[in-house]
Structures are given as C-alpha cells and as structure tokens.
Amino acid sequence: MKKWLYTTVAFSFVLTACNDAANEENETGYTVEDARGMELTFDEPPETIISILPSNTEIIFALGQGDKVIGVSDTDVYPEEVTEIEVVAEYENPYVERMLELDPDLIIGYDYGSNEMAQLNDVGLPAFAIDSAQTMDDIFEDIQTIADVLAVPEEGERLITEMKAEFDKIAEAVADVEKRSVYFEISPSPDIWTLGAGTFQHEMIEIAGLENVFSDVEGWASISDEEVVARNPELIYTSVNYIEDPLEDIRQRDGWSTIEAIQQDQLEQMPPDIMDRPGPRIAEATRILAETAYPEAFQ
Length: 299
What we know:
Elements: E1 5-6, E2 22-23, E3 30-33, E4 39-42, E5 49-51, H1 54-62, E6 69-73, E7 87-90, E8 93-94, H2 96-102, E9 106-111, H3 116-122, E10 127-131, H4 136-149, H5 153-173, E11 180-187, E12 193-195, H6 200-207, E13 210-212, E14 220-222, H7 225-231, E15 235-238, H8 246-251, H9 260-263, E16 267-269, H10 272-275, H11 282-293
Parallel strand pairs: 1-2, 5-6, 5-9, 6-7, 9-10, 11-13, 11-15, 15-16
Antiparallel strand pairs: 3-4, 7-8, 11-12, 12-14
C-alpha cells in the first residue's frame, strides 16, 4: 500500500518501514518515498514541520514531536496547543507563499488524488503524502509511516501498542453484554450517509460490542430513510455537527417514529473530531461508543 526507503549514515540504527519497504545505504542521510512515489532525502530528522490535515497533526503530537510543528490547517483543534500555531492551509488550499517563507523541513499531508501536494513539491517545498486511511490497519500504518519519516520509529511502535492494548481492554469489558444494534449517521437528511464494513468506524463499533445495522454495506455509503426504518436500530449515533440540532432533525423525519431507538429516546450526539478522524484518538472514540451503549460494563 505504501513504500518508503530508508538509509542511514548519521544514525546508529536502521529505520524500519512497513509493508514492502526496503533499506539502502546512503552517505547523505535517509530517503523516504511517499504514497505518490515522490522521494525526499534528509541529512537529519526534520526539525520544523507543517501538517495540513488534523489527523496527521494529532499523530505527530502523539509521537512526542509536537514542538516541531510550525504550521497547521484551519480545521486543527487538537491538542489544545495547535490553537497557538499558525494556520497555513485550508481544505485543498495551502498558503504556498507563506509556507515558502516559513521554509519547513517537512510538510505532511494526504494523497487525495488532487494536485495539492504536487503544487507544493513544484515550488521546492518538501511535501510528503500518506495514503488516506480507511481501516484501522491503515491508521496504524500511517502512524508508523509518520514515525519513520520523523526518525522516531520506536515511538510509532509504542503508540500503536498502547492503542491496541486499549482496544483489548474495551473488548474485554463488553465481552459478556447482550449486543445492541446501532445506526451511525455521518451526513444528515436529505443526503443521508452512514458507514459500513471496511471503515475504521465500523471496526470501532464492533470492538465496542455493538452491531452495525449497515454491516452489509461497504465503506461510507448513501442510504435511504426507508433502509434505516426497515433495519430498526436500538441505538442511533450521529457525528453530524453542522446543522442546528442533529438529534431533533432525526426525531422529526417522516416515518422514523417507528424506529425503536427513537421510541426509546436512544439517540446520542458523538464528537466528530474524535469519531471521524483516522488518528490516535480512535481508541478514545471506541471507549465512548462502548460506555454510552453499556455504562454498566464500565462501573
């Protein structure tokens, strides 16, 4: 899925990459290859970093490298320190001139298939793109990729181990519960979207001991009112936060009053920056899902 090549002279260790990564000697430092096949060479680990996607920013901070971040996007909100860092990008709109002035050692973003990263490379900026994560394994891979690029591979391993240990604790806590069914909404009416198999949120739902009523759907999918009503979930969760009252919007939809979750008032607003971002806080998000559904299991 991703390949990156590392070589060392100034280091006494070998940076280990995931998947089909290879090691190669190089007298000038180490070279990394991103999701687009673009290569960057470093004489030493980056000391100044721009992150143009919030999940990447959260990963960098979780790796203990947050003090090196000098620029972020306008949607970065976590950790709190990012509010003091200069905004140098909007969605698909990096402030190229300002980035040139800041002259970072590294810019980390995603490979969207757009020219956002290419335009940065074209003006000589060190832009590194990682694949957009869909599954938990993708997220773990992104974490390790960023850790390797920043020359802290052991921190990536530590973070991934801690996250997996938290998932295990949650799964153990809900192992004996009577599973409840849930519908998770990520886009409201009239263009309703939910999540299905092959997404990290679906995996979170499963670890939390819940049954996703759209587990037979692949990826993030557009659905109809009738499909939700027919599947009659016991719980309804939503991460929508850009309309006035997402929960009341759901309650008032035509035909939805027959759904058990609405009859029993089992609707919950979930924090989108935790639930929808493929970063290190997905373990925290999974705990929120589980504790909301089964509070007695965590007493």
